[in-house]
Amino acid sequence: MSQTKKIKTALISVFHKDGLNEILAMLAKDGVKFLSTGGTRAFIEEAGYACEAVEDLTGYPSILGGRVKTLHPKVFGGILGRRDNSGDVETMTELAIPEIDLVIVDLYPFEQTVASGASHADIIEKIDIGGISLIRAAAKNFSDVAIVASKAQYPLLRGFLDEHGAATTLEERCLLAREAFAVSSGYDSAIFGYMCTVTPEAPGALRLAIDGERSLRYGENPHQQAAFYGDLDAMFDRLHGKEISYNNLLDIDSAVALIDEFGTEPTVAILKHNNACGLATRDTLAQAWADALAGDPVSAFGGVIIANAVIDAVTAAEINKIFFEVIIAPGFTDDAMAILTQKKNRIILRRKPCDVAPKTVRTILNGILCQQRDTKVETAEDLKVVSGELTDAKVADMLFANKIVKHSKSNAIVLARDGQLIASGVGQTSRVDALRHAIEKARSFGFDLKGATMASDAFFPFADCVEIAHEAGVDSVIQPGGSIRDTDSVDFCCEHGMTMVMTGFRHFRH
Fold it and tell me: What is the set of active-site residues?
């Protein structure tokens, strides 16, 4: 055991007291002296242990309404003093500064206070000063001092104390210091994030701090290492199946974003490589599944399925006839679960109410791109008619198709009719190629495109797309507009009896 240090004195200052009793008992058993202040000191004494007040050590009371308690040279000298430095030891002896070997801190709950909708003044008061300073000091001097920076690290400390009593090795202190800096950096990032919301100027920096690493089997390909950072358990209950993979997560993210556009009418979507290959809205979930699958039964193999309603046994029995990786829904009946769990590796996820991040980020070159999430959902009021006339049925088809194309890789074209995705062309280098691909797919699965609606994620630079669509039987078009040659497409639609609307909102997705 390398460079083991006995714990003789522990400074404890925590907001949450749960979980502390067991640690106090383990430390007291080995004669560790406790040092604390305020509510933590009262808790320790009520538990039956002697505890010296920080105020008695420093000779100063807690002041400014509790804003200043531990900020004193006799506290920080005891933490930062280097035990192997003769100058430090001499100074500590001269000034009667006691060595502090263990610091246990649990910070004011800043993020929870923000999330609760508290006032600005209350939020500011929950910015911990003394605690964060104790963490940084103890973590810096990990050669001599052990730091526990959060109640989440109590199990780690209990394991060390279980193994060798009130002592820590250098390796253990280094590990605790690493975790402590993760806590302090995350805490400061949360404060920075909040301050960005109360100042009008754009911040000159981006700070991301996400707890919870989930190691993945591999990344996009088997030779790449990967991990997910976040709290999947807040979004899903994994009811069955193997561990979720990197590619699964990409599809799951796309699936959740897509299905949330469709409200409460029974809807099923099937996704492959982040794009919808089948989607339908119907009176029943079973029929929605059947019509979603009909859109592209070939691509559905090995895909991700998501529904916006509880999956029943009838629907599950039909879904169970094909191979798929993941199924997601707000719930599953017992009979449905009995059917779907017949394949041991099939991932079954039950959604929970949970907000997604308001911004998206991705690494590029030597930096990061950050943008607001595309939350625009077009309504009938957004549709500017530039050719033909609208009916309620056409409005419904246009908005339906537009939701799908918004979540398809650009360049993208979607063909839809009567609440069903007929076909799509996605990820093409030209819009014409995307359209031709969609038409070919639709015909290969036996769809007649007469009366279908075409949605485009961006404007048409020429009239070629509406010409090809008209020839295939499409009679209505929804697109953002904005090309300097919009009139070419509009004139063609007017001359050939096609209805066209423009929304004014582009939905590129790269």
Answer: 140, 273
